[in-house]
Structures are given as C-alpha cells and as structure tokens.
Amino acid sequence: MSKPRILVLTAAGRTGMPGALQLLDEGFPVTAFVHRADQRSERLKAKGADIIVGSLTDINDMRTAMAGARRAYFCVPNEAGYLKAAAIFTVVAAEQQLETVVAMSQWLSNPNHPSVHTREVWLADRLFAMLPGTAVTYINPGFFADNEMQVLPFAAQFGLLSLPYGTGLNAPPSNEDMARVVAEILARPEGHAGKMYRPTGPKLLSPQDIAAILGKVLGREVTYRNAPMRMLSKIMRDRLSLYNLAAYSQYVIDYQKNAFAVNAPTDVVRRITGREAEDFETIARRYVATTEGARLSFATQFKLMLGLIISILRPAPRTAPYLALGEFSERSHVAFSADSPQWRQSHEPQANEPSGEKPAF
Asked: 184, 191, 218, 354: which is closest to 293 by C-alpha?
C-alpha cells in the first residue's frame, strides 16, 4: 500500500527541513513548500522531495503545493501575514479534504497578548479546528534553544551572555527534537487527533545555567548579564524585522514572568519519538561545531565589537506600531500570558493529564 503524500510548509526552516528529511527517509512522498530555491531546497530535492517555490499568502501557490497531499505540516514564520497564510491554508485544506494536519502553534497563544503575532496564532489554531473531517494536532513549544545560539559568537569571543531574561526559567527544546515529534505524528497520526503537545528539553534552566553550559562547551567562563530590551533591540534590528522584533520584545517579558516554566519540563519527546529529549549541552555542542564565530578569533572580536559600538550609537527602533494595540477597544484588555488567569488555567498541568499533553480546546 502506497504511503500518503505529505506537504511540509517552510520546508527549508528550522523544523521543516529536519522533519521533511525524516519523512523522506521513511519513504513518504513529500512536497516541500519553500520561499525560494537555494542550497536547502536542493538538498531536499536530492533526497526526493518535490519542491514548490511560492508564497504562503498566495492561494494559487498553496493550491499547487497541496495538490495530491493527504497530510500537511503547517509552520509559518513569525512575520506579517501569518493569519492570512493560516486562512488560505484552511480554505485549501478543506478543498483538498486533508486527513491530517500538524500545526505549529505557540506556548504563549492568547487572544489578548500584546504581540499581534501571538493573537493571530490563537485565532489560526481555532480556524484549523473548524476543518471538516480533518484530524488536527497542535505542537505548542516555548522558547527554542536556537534562540540562545544566536548570541553564541559573542559568548565565545567575550565570555558574556547578555539577554533580557531576568530570572525566568525555560526548558529549551532543540529544533531537531521538535521536528522528530512533528514527523512522527505525520507518519503515524493515529491517537493524536485533537491533542496539543508541548515538547521541551529535559530540564528547567536559569539564564545562569545556560551561560554555565555554554562556558563548559566553549572551554571558557561565560557570565550571564541581564540586557535591557531597548539596548538589545538596537543590536538585533539588522537580524530581525521590526514585526518580529516587536513580538520578541513582548515574549521576553513573559519569559521574565516565568511563563515558559509553566508545565515544564515534559516527557513529550520521549513519549512521541521513543528517544530522550536532547539536553542543552548536546544542542550547544552541535552549534559550536558548526558556527564559525564560535572559534576564538581577533578578527571576529573586532567585527563584533565594531558592530556593537555602531548599534549602541544609533536610536532604538520603534516597534510599538507593530503590536497593533489599536485593535483593542480598551488597553485593560491586553494581558501577558503569565498574567492571564484564563491562559494559566488552560496551560497549567491538571490531575491525570499526561505530561505536556492536553486536549486542544
């Protein structure tokens, strides 16, 4: 009996790529939807994927990509147009009568969150739930370990980890573990319909713990210092869009309020994939081995320091307009997830519930 075709959105991304590769290794026909053709899409093509280059907000491209698919992974970047992409996906999924969808949601998903992206994720999840006859499973992650690795070169060169996490705790999962969970559910969806899973790393870590582990892997002392978000936004403005930066500036407040420590760690990775979740040291060693800036170098130090000085001297970007708080009639309606009784009730563990697993709604 032939295996069903699976559509993977953002197939060149952090979870799309490893997830698509795993499905291809298992013999599933895979359609990989990518934003542009590059070395990543060529790698997928070489493994046997059918490549569709297009826009997630163009219904014509979505129809082309979903033709012949029976299952799909919905994963869209944190950028403007998310809700439109979700609506288009839902319409085409209904037309194609998909049997299974795995949707990448978000741990902070909340209709009243300051981040417009998080509000749209909450709405998108409910759109997917309306798909007639489609079994939908939600993956509900918090902060990925990949986020800390974006400042790995600075930690390697100067022994300093500067992030705005306060005293918040997190059990950061790897991209690879997240992809393994997604691929397993897409390959064998029985028993997962209507469930929401929260994969995490194996241990809650403080920012100081993260710095110490990076120091161990790098072979030098790394110290954590809390960075003001205003300062960090100056440095990150060349790496993130203002839309993404606006969302990040709100997520770190929930991080400081310990929202990512709620219901963590979980055993979802082990229960779904049959293997233990990767710990932070394992993840860090992989990044150190493949990140050029992780090797001590005077040239890298000079480049980083020059960039830091230039960033500090320029004004902080205005991200408030990208929160679209004018959508609320009253500012009092806005609430961080950690401060929302409704969010806590739906996210905190309940008696007799498996670790990190909840009914979707």
From this structure: 218
